[in-house]
Recover the amino acids of this structure.
């Protein structure tokens, strides 16, 4: 794996795991009133498109980062809808 | 511009503007207690790395989407630090 792909994976890991603290926070507090529904709705749809784009440009960092981001952001979205 | 790049831009527009509703919500309410500080901190750092990766793989959608995302997420981060 070349250094560019490694850097891409590193960026991908950071932006992907960034959603984890929000998942944990929302899981613990069950409170989402300050979290924007539209943010996570648009984010989930956009991430699906990024995954398709990642396949088309053959970029493993784009594919993997967005796959995991999708799982985490959709969990936050479900929390937001469930616990208003 | 080919259709793959167009799709990338579309995904980029969606994930990028997704942060706007959160900026507006936080601007209005000045309340960020349900928003995770770590989420937006990791997101900002990760997005900077994505921008560098975008330059290295010559992907305009990756560069542009992440540039605007960085502006919006850093605003949310400042709000989070300012209005705990």
């Amino acid at each position: 794996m070349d250094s560019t792909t490694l850097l891409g994976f590193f960026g991908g890991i950071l932006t992907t795991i960034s959603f984890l603290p929000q998942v944990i926070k929302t899981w613990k507090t069950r409170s989402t009133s300050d979290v924007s529904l539209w943010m996570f709705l648009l984010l989930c749809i956009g991430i699906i498109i990024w995954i398709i784009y990642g396949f088309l440009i053959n970029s493993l960092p784009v594919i993997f980062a967005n796959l995991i981001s999708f799982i985490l952001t959709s969990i936050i979205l479900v929390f937001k809808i469930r616990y208003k």
